[in-house]
Design goal:
This protein is mostly helical. 78% of the residues lie in helices and 0% in strands. Helix 1 packs antiparallel against helix 2, helix 2 packs antiparallel against helix 3 and helix 3 runs antiparallel to helix 4.
Length: 171
């Protein structure tokens, strides 16, 4: 019975939390980016006057879920580093990447989403269809660049921790 120590049990629990949060976050991002957003564009929702407020309410909720997932990933990584289970001095990049993911989620929540919503908000109800501002296209490019960076970084972290978990159980 002494072969399984409580420290190993707790470490694997945080690793499971990290893998679950990262998997949930990446898969929900892919669903939003590859299913929901293209469907909204294809149905012509972008030309509707209430699109900015509808998309803001979608992203408001999703950004808060992203923040919780990013906080779980960062906390799990820091705890795993502190207990020296999976991270060694040569893998300090595995702390920087979750920190970058958390910063990206903060930027989405408090920077990019409110700015995009304010640009798309139609304040003149008597005006017909308004043109999309040029700044909105730049913000869309920023969003997609950050989204690709987030998905690649998250996939690399997921692969790293999943391989560490698999290799640890094989010993």
């Amino acid at each position: 019975m002494t072969a399984i120590s409580p420290a190993i049990f707790h470490r694997s629990r945080w690793q499971t939390v990290l893998i679950f949060a990262l998997t949930f976050w990446l898969s929900s991002s892919l669903i939003l980016d590859l299913v929901i957003m293209p469907e909204l564009y294809a149905t012509g929702m972008m030309t509707q006057p209430g699109f900015a407020s509808a998309s803001y309410s979608i992203f408001w909720l999703f950004n808060r879920i992203e923040l919780v997932c990013a906080a779980l990933v960062l906390t799990s990584t820091l705890l795993l580093y502190k207990t020296q289970t999976l991270l060694r001095p040569g893998t300090l990049w595995a702390i920087g990447l979750p920190l970058m993911l958390f910063t990206t989620a903060l930027f989405y929540t408090y920077g990019l989403t409110p700015a995009m919503s304010s640009l798309g908000l139609q304040l003149d109800w008597f005006d017909g269809v308004a043109e999309v501002p040029a700044a909105m296209n730049q913000m869309h490019q920023s969003y997609w660049a950050l989204e690709v960076l987030k998905l690649v970084t998250g996939a690399a972290l997921l692969k790293f921790y999943y391989n560490r978990a698999y290799n640890r159980t094989q010993r």
